[in-house]
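Archive transcription. Copying these from loose printouts into the bound notebook so they stop getting lost. Printout 1 of 2:
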Amino acid sequence: MKHTLLLLLFLVTGALKAQSLSSDDLYVLCSEKMTSWDSILIKKGFKEKYSRPKKEGGYIALYQNKTKNEYIFVYANNDEKTTNANYYLPTKKAYLALCTDKKNLPPGFDYNRLGKVEYEGKIYYHLGFSIKEVTTSP
């Protein structure tokens, strides 16, 4: 019984820890093509709610993590290259944890604090992430 309880506690805390995306996860997501979105996000507890072409061109997909009550909208251009992601977090603590010093971010990767947003009747803290092609001088 004692071992079962410890195993259950380990599984629950381990699963909860692995759910949220870190800034490193978001960097990888933003630097990959849209064909990689599922493999990246499903490992973190997200499930695709929808994915479709946008009327203006490009693609949009929405993923939800029901356990953590988080949403992420991911956008790609017509070449299926990820252009940006909007991450909806349920708590200010999680929101601020991702607001790292921009000097420590990889070149071309950036985020914007977009404040509170209402989605599906709930208030979320909204962070926008994007990545630009970095050109180096010869």
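Printout 2 of 2:
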Amino acid sequence: MISSSIAKNKEAPFSWKKISKSFTKFTAVGIIATFCNIYLLWLLIDIYKINTLISSSVVVLGIFLAKFIAYHKINLIRKQFIKYTVIQVSMRLLQIFGVWYLIDILEISTLYSAVIVMGAVFMLTFIIFKITGLIIE
């Protein structure tokens, strides 16, 4: 009975192929955004000598908006800016807490803590995008 309903749909409800494709897009945008973030911070702070607080605020906001636009343009996420913003802000707060906890409480080195937290938050962000229906199937 179950196999006949799956046969009618021609596809199981869970598809590794779709998830892999979505995760690849998510990762590609993340890598590009990271390199842009580093380059723009270097350019504004070291080359143009713009105040660090101003530069980092402008870059973080710009990258945040650029990622939303990129995700939408490559048909990765739905155009739901509020949901995207809530998830992203929550993940950044979790990132801040995670780094603090690993470094200051558990006394794990900064390098390892950053890698662990950034990797975990990256994966969790994708999972939450998927669970909340932000990712387009």
